[in-house]
Amino acid sequence: MDYENKLVLAPMVRVGALPFRMLAAEYGADITYGEEIIDHKMLKCERVVNDYLGTTDFVEKGTGGVVFRTCPEERDRVVFQMGTSCAARALATAQLVCKDVAAIDINMGCPKSFSISGGMGAALLSKPELIDDILTTLIRNLDVPVTCKIRLLKSPQDTVELARRIEKTGVSALAVHGRKVADRPKDAAKWSEIADVVAALSIPVIANGDVFDYEDFGRIKKATGAASVMVARGAMWNASIFCSKGKLPWEEIKREYVRKSILWDNDVKSTKQTIKELIMHHSCLEFPEGKAVNKCETVADLGKLYGEEEYCIAVQESRS
Ligand SMILES: Cc1cc2nc3c(=O)[nH]c(=O)nc-3n(C[C@H](O)[C@H](O)[C@H](O)COP(=O)(O)O)c2cc1C
């Protein structure tokens, strides 16, 4: 996969399922990351070709829950991101999914307690031997590109040292979220510390943090020298951020997202969460719309709420 000059949709738990990735790609995202999936969870899954939807599903044995859904249309741009703390488990997980995705990414940035306590996410940042073990095991055994996503360490020197060590494993690219583990999302991303990493490496760096408008893609690229740019919240709040012509109204994006969730039979919890993020940002969850979304029990209920009943019927009829 080519990592030069790409607009990248960041991994986002609950948000980054297939409908949202397809939406972002429609608006111009070149590379779309899936949400982080924990290796333990993925290893309970079997790969199922879903002829009805035209998707490939990774379905949890026993519960039947879809843990990861992808489709051939996104095969060349979707990145499977996993949470792991073990090379053998990471490899088994990657082997399950690698034929259906463009690349495998290891999350080394998640600061949440469930990740840290499991030795995953940002816990890896202080375990360079384990990082080496996980990345070299994957790179040696897989044909797809392997990458990872890190946060900044306490000092720019520490970040650069770790980035150099990661580069030596043979990863195809490195995504750098310009915040430290203790930083909150409202703290400004430190683009200058991403620039330090870019200057020290020869592999493509994907700069991430505080991109909220199309123009910011150019600004962060100029400030950091990064090969590509990754955006999370800016895309979550308006997926048309990837459009060079400017953003579309958020209500329009919301309706298109509902339609895509119907089309790909998305999990209702994930669909509701994404719509609630939009409402929280642009309006207020306490308003009637937010309350009505809360009451929806199925994606079809959401379709009804947003006047997409005919679309629901058309999708069903096209498949029967
Ligand atoms: C709702 C949400 C879910 C996220 N989930 C993940 C995830 O699964 N994996 C990951 O590496 N980062 C995750 N992140 C972090 C983002 O990928 C990104 O690094 C961070 O939000 C900074 O980018 P931004 O300033 O463009 O929002 C998440 C962020 C948000 C807002």
TrEMBL record:
GO MF annotations, alphabetized: flavin adenine dinucleotide binding; tRNA dihydrouridine synthase activity
Q: Which SUPFAM superfamilies match?
A: FMN-linked oxidoreductases (SSF51395)
- Pinpoint the DUS-like FMN-binding domain residues: 9-258
Q: Which PROSITE patterns match?
A: UPF0034
Name the cofactor(s) required for activity, per the record.
FMN
One CC-aspect GO term: cytoplasm
Mind listing the UniProt keywords for this protein, alphabetically?
Flavoprotein, FMN, Oxidoreductase, tRNA processing
InterPro entries on file: Aldolase_TIM (IPR013785), DUS-like_FMN-bd (IPR035587), tRNA-DUS-like (IPR052582), tRNA_hU_synthase_CS (IPR018517)
Task: State the name under which the record lists this protein.
Answer: DUS-like FMN-binding domain-containing protein
UniProt source species: Acorus calamus
